[in-house]
C-alpha cells in the first residue's frame, strides 16, 4: 500500500514537470548564453559565477513559458493541499519520517511496542501516573470525538437532505444544513476545536473524517456504526448502539433526544473518572498542574450548557507531556528498557531504511558502512537536504524567501551544478526541476528537493540497505544493544529492585500479554531467541505490578488497538 | 577507504554560526584551509584515521550548522557522541557568550559524560581579539572542559584539539570508565582491534549465560 502511494505521488509530481521541460528543451539547447559543459577545474570564484550564469540562462529560456509555469504551479499547490491525493501525500511523507527505533516522546506514546517499555521505565521512577494520565486523556479525547462524529453521522442519516455517502470536506456543511437542532449543537464543537488548535488539529480531524469516509464507501453506514462501538466505547455505549439501531427503525425525535442524553452521560462519566483518578486534589497520585488549570478543567466538564468539552484535558495533557519530555525521556533513551525495545524491533521482522536514518545510534553504524562502500555523498546529500526541508516546513510558510534561496543554492552548488564539488549524477531533468524550484518567486518551498531526495532514498534502500543488514557493522550494532541490556540488568538486579520480589507472582494482566505477544516473534539467530524468551518473562512479571483496575485495563486495551491497525499497512508491504 | 583501525569514535563539532566549525573539520581532514565560505546546511560529516598512543583511531566527525534556524534539526544528531569540539570565535564576544547554551545541549542531548574540548578559533586574528585566553581558560576549568586556541586558517592546534579529545576518550576506555560496547557510547571497535578477541570472549560468556537460563 505504501509502495503504491509512493508511485502515485511520483507520477503526480513528474508529469507536469516533464511537460514543461520538454517544451523548453529546444530553447535550452539553442540558447547562446548557456555555458558549455566543462569539467575543468575553475578558480575559487568560478563555480559561483558559472552557477549564476547558468541560472540566468535558464531563467531567460523560461521567460516565454513563464505564464504556463505560473498556471501549472497553483494547480499543483491546490492538489497538494486540498485534494484526496494531497492527503495521501501527507501520509506518505509522515510515514517516511518515522523510525521504528523511535526518536521522540510523541512517537513512543503512539507505538504499542515501545510504550510498554516506557511505562516500565516510568514505574521504576515512580512516575508512571504521568504516562497513564496522558494515555487516558488521549483515549478520552479520541473516543469522545469519535462518538460525536458517529452521532452526527447517524443524525445526518435521518435528515432528508443527507446523501448516503458524502465527501469528508462537505460533511460539516451537511450537518449545518440539517433542520435538526441536535446536529447543529454538535457541529459547533468541531469549529471550536479548530479555532483553539489551529491547522494541526484540522489536519488530524480531516484525516479521521477521511478514514470514516473511506470505511463508509467500502462497507456502508450500518456496519461502520456497529464496528466503531466494540473498539472505542464502553459497555454502556453498546447499549446506546442497540438503541440507535431501534431508532433507525423508528426515526422519531423523542428517540434521538433519549440517545443524546445517554450519550452525554457516558462522556461525562468518563471525564469524571479520569479527573477523580489523576487531577482531583484527593487523587492518590495527582499530576503536577496548577489550581487554575484544575479549575479550568472542572469548568469544561461541568459546563453551563451541560456538555463536556472533548478538549477538557488537552491543556493538562500538554503539561504532562512537557514534564515527561524534559525530566524523564532523555534518561529513557539511555536506559536498558529502550535498548530492549530496539532489539525487539531489529529481531522481530523487517528493518526499513527509515528505521536506520531516523535513529542516531543506527545512523552512526550506517554512516560508517556507507563510507566503506564509497557512497557517503548520497547519505550526505540526503541528510543536508532533509534538514533543509524539515526546518523550512517547520516554519509553516513564515520564512525569509531570500535566506531559504541562499541555503538551497549552497546545496545546488555542491550536488547539482555542472561544476558541483560533490556531483551525484542526477540527470538533467532533475537538475532543471531543482533550478526551477529554487528560483521560484517568493523563495523555494519546503518540498524543493523532494524528487532527488526520493531518488537518493530509493538508491540507499535498494542498493545499500540489504548489504548493511548483513554486514559486520550491523552485527556489532546488535551486539552493543545486547551488551547494554545485559550490563544494566546485572547492576539493576544487584540493586535489589522491589519488583524483583514479584517475579514469582503468577498473576498478570491478559491485556498486557495480548499487547506484548505480537511483538515477541522469535528471531533468526539462536542466541536472540533465548534473549527474547528471557525478556518475555521479565515483561510479564513487571506487568503484574500494574494496577488491575478493570476500567483502566479496558481503556488501555482500547488504546492499543488503534495504532496497531494504522501501522499494519506499511509493514505488510 | 578500506583502512583498518582499532576504534571508531563519533565526534561532534558545535558552536555558533561563523566560528569556523566547518573550516576546522576541513583543515583536520584535508590539511588545508576551506576556501568557500558557504554555511553548513543541517549536518555534514567527515572522517580521518589518527594514531593515538599506539592505537589506530578513526574519527567520524559530525559538523553541525550553527544558524539558529537549524538548531532544532541538528540536535537530533547529538546523541551517542563520544567527544565534541565546542567552538567559539575569539574575535566575537557574542559567540563566547553563547557557549553555555551549546554546552547544556551537548550534555543533555549527547551524554552527561561526553568529552568536550573548548576551541577558541581564529587565533590568527589576535589583533581583533575580544575574548582573552585567561577568561576562556577559566570558563573551561569551571565547566570541566579541555581548552585550546586554534586557527583553522594556519592550522595551528587543529590536529592537537582532535587528538587531545581522542586521547582522553582512549584513556577512559583503558581505565574502564567508558564501555565501548555500551549503546550510545559513540565508540565502535574496529576490525583490527586487538580487543576483538576479548569481544568474542564476551560474546561466548553471554551465550553461556543464556544457556543457563
From TrEMBL, chain A:
Residues 104-342, 352-478 form the RGS domain. InterPro entries: Cell_Polariz_PKAAnc, RGS, RGS_sf, RGS_subdomain_2. It comes from the Eukaryota. Residues 180-255, 493-525 are annotated as: Disordered. PROSITE patterns: RGS (PS50132). It holds the Pfam family RGS. Residues 204-215, 234-253 have a biased composition (Polar residues). CDD domains: RGS_AKAP2_1, RGS_AKAP2_2. This is A-kinase anchoring protein 10.
From TrEMBL, chain B:
It is a lipid-anchor. Its cofactor is Mg(2+). Keywords: Endosome, GTP-binding, Hydrolase, Lipoprotein, Magnesium, Membrane, Metal-binding, Methylation, Nucleotide-binding, Prenylation, Protein transport, Transport. Residues 189-213 are annotated as: Disordered. SMART domains: RAB, RAN, RAS, RHO. Pfam families: Ras. Residues 202-213 have a biased composition (Polar residues). One of its GO terms (molecular function) is metal ion binding. It catalyses: GTP + H2O = GDP + phosphate + H(+). It is found in: Cell membrane; Early endosome membrane. The keyword Protein transport applies. InterPro entries: P-loop_NTPase (IPR027417), Rab4 (IPR041819), Rab_GTPases_membrane_traffic (IPR050209), Small_GTP-bd (IPR005225), Small_GTPase (IPR001806). This is Ras-related protein Rab-4. It comes from Xenopus tropicalis (Western clawed frog). The lineage of its organism: Eukaryota, Metazoa, Chordata, Craniata, Vertebrata.
